[in-house]
Amino acid sequence: MKIVLLGLVLVMVFFPIKLSANDVYVVVMQKQEQKKQRGWSLADWMVTKNKMKIMDMWLALNSSANLFEFYLGGHQNNYDLNNRNTATKEAKKSLGGELGAYISILGIELEYDKSNEKYDLRSGMIGLRILGTAYQGTNLTIGFGNKTFDVENDNEYNNQFVQGKLAINLFSFLGVQGIYKNYLARKSNGIELSGYKNMYGAYLDIYFLRLYGNLFNEKLNYSNSLTYTTQKRSGYTLGAQIFF
Fold first, then answer.
1. For the chain, which residues make up each domain, given as ranges?
2. What topology does CATH give the domain 68-243?
3. pTM for this one?
4. pLDDT by residue (tens digit) across 164-176?
């Protein structure tokens, strides 16, 4: 016993403990933090389980049904043209086609229209599907692209645009959709063009064939240092698309 006590005295003499009360507190708290991080409880397990359920549900609802998806279509627009300056209203018509190709959630969409209003419209867009498993189905898709508005005996206007599209299947064969497109202001030969277009309607899917109809409103603003002109087009679109 005396030998043990003598050993303890020697340790205390030659190896003094210099830890202050604060140092001890820090060490203890660090250990508690490590226990909390590495620990496990029933509540933690329930939270993790719910998170995994939500993630599994999201993946099930948004994983691409097919890696590749393509569509080809045609449409006819019937609309009224309103000119603010002349206060006139004219019935017009245009015919057009569309083409799209998606790889998983990323794709490209092309469109062409030719109107008896004597203009050609060409547009191309890169689309990103952020919700949904396919373009032909419930989905939320955003896009960025460029539109060329080529007016006969007039300017050719090039505008970039952003687009958002929401399609919801009410049944496996029937759905509704809404599209909003905003044309970013840009000058061409001293004239600045800006505007927007919104569309909303319904579609009917028969296997790989889709028949659709939309109502639309479009407003274009032309301006320079001297004048400001507004054109409005409102009407409906009837079209068909083939998916493959």
1. 22-62, 68-243
2. Lipocalin (2.40.128)
3. 0.77
4. 999 999 999 999 9
